[in-house]
## 1
Amino acid sequence: MPFMLDADNGGSDCSINGIHADVLNVTWGPDPVGPTGMTMYFNVSQGLSQNSTTYTKLVVSFNDPSGLISSAKQLEIPPSVNSIDGSYPVTIPDYIPAPLYTVVVMVTEVGIGDVSYCALFSRDSRSG
């Protein structure tokens, strides 16, 4: 499995959460996560091994250290594309586990459950 060199500090694959997928090329900010209601941006640049479908989504989740999801956002990926290259806004949710949490970003086929690409970022603080 490839490892990304340009990920935000602390990025890794998602195997700790039982997800075995290629590492997603993503950076995001603010880092660490800011206050509730602020908009953060996830910048994704990833070639896909197969064209996207109507079920392909970019999912951003905020999890406790065990992997339990406290909040998640699904973002649309247009069908029939073979790469994702864009900046995706996400509003910081009301609840993020404290003081430790993870930010997980993945490309998945919603409803099927197949995860093609994933990156996990462990954090122990928030800004703002």
Note: Strands lie at 11-12, 22-23, 26-29, 39-47, 56-63, 69-76, 83-91, 101-109, 114-123.
## 2
Amino acid sequence: MTASTEQFVDIAKRGQDLVTESVRSWTEAAGGLARQFGAGDRPQLPDAGVAVDRVFDFYEQVLGHQREFARTLVGASTSVLDQVTEQATKAAEAVTEHAGRGAEAVAEKTTRATRGTAK
């Protein structure tokens, strides 16, 4: 066998040993729990179907809260984006207006200078 095959076999054996030991431990623990109760003293175990329904009901509530949070977050983001867009538009208009005034002033000065030179 090559080194990589030997490593693979070793890992597989260790995994199998761990699973075997886990099952053995679980079996011993369950047997010890069963021995603690007499024939008439065994507790009533919960209905597995009810437990499954409760778990899924809980996760349904969590998912509902996450959905509402996401909607709130998206709504807030949209509102902020709208405000930023509006402010940017106003700023662009102000800059354009200011630049237009500046260009007019330069044109006027150029015209005056040209007239003064032509005379």
Note: The mean pLDDT is 80.
